[in-house]
Amino acid sequence: MGSLATVALAAIGVSATVFSNELNALVRQHVFTLDATHWILLSLVVVAFLLILLFAYLNAGKNERIDELEARNRDLVEQLETDTKSGLSSYDFFIRKFDDEYVPAAREGSVFSVLMIDIVGFKSINDTLGHDAGDEAISLIGGFLKSFVRGKRDLAARYGEAADEFFFIISGDTAALTGFTNRLRRELEQECTENFELLKSAGIVLKFWSSATSVSENDSWEKAKTRLTKGLVQAKDIPTESTVIIASD
């Protein structure tokens, strides 16, 4: 039984006991006498008082159960919206947000760009150090990428079990996205070189190619992903790491 319900139940017992003791004391002292009608009325008052306390007890327990259910629901929603390995948004949640929020916002004049990143090197981690090390690397990279999410309007997600593709949505046009991508690439390489002991110990260097496109007012995630995939293929034909920007429809 919850703490609030326990308190309410205790209050009922204490109140009833105190009321009964005081009434008996007054009667014994002949402070007043009551005929049958008055006893009935007094009994009804007592019953009503106890019913009020009982209602408070039941309501306290109900509210506590509602709070518990709401907390469980929040945990469940968070689990569905979050990729557990990387700590980023889940891919399904990313798609829903793109179609249900970002595209309607673009129709109203807001400007967003979406970035697809292919990080090369994860397979080497799994092959060289095992899948546990691969999961640890996903967590490290996910934490790093999450630090680039600049507020509620930005969103980052991991794509697929291969773990080497990530998506970003940021507010701003593709020109702003180019600067964002260059800084992301530069700091990721620095982070891998200086701080990711797991990768350094195996001599693994992560590199990434990327593609970007604007979110248009008539967009859908399937359309945007098709453009991004096309741009990523083009980017991989370029000898150096680069970002290819594909115009929206």
Task: Note down, in words, how this protein is organized.
The protein is built from 8 helices and 5 strands. The chain has a 5-stranded mixed beta sheet with strand order 2-3-1-4-5, sandwiched between helices. The protein has 249 residues and is α+β, with helices and mostly antiparallel strands. It has helices at residues 3-28, 36-81, 91-107, 122-129, 131-146, 174-194, 197-202, 221-236; strands spanning 112-120, 155-159, 165-171, 207-214, 243-245. 63% of the residues lie in helices and 13% in strands. The model has no long low-confidence stretch (mean pLDDT 75). β2 and β3 (165-171) form a beta hairpin.
Summarize the structure.
With 249 residues, the chain is an alpha+beta fold.
Q: Could you name the key traits of this structure?
A:
alpha+beta, 5-stranded mixed beta sheet, 249 residues, 63% helix
The strand order across the widest sheet is 2-3-1-4-5
What gyration radius follows from the Cα positions, in whole Å?
32 Å
Please trace the helix and strand order, writing H or E for each element.
Answer: HHHEHHEEHHEHE
Helix/strand structural class: alpha+beta
* Ends distance: 59 Å
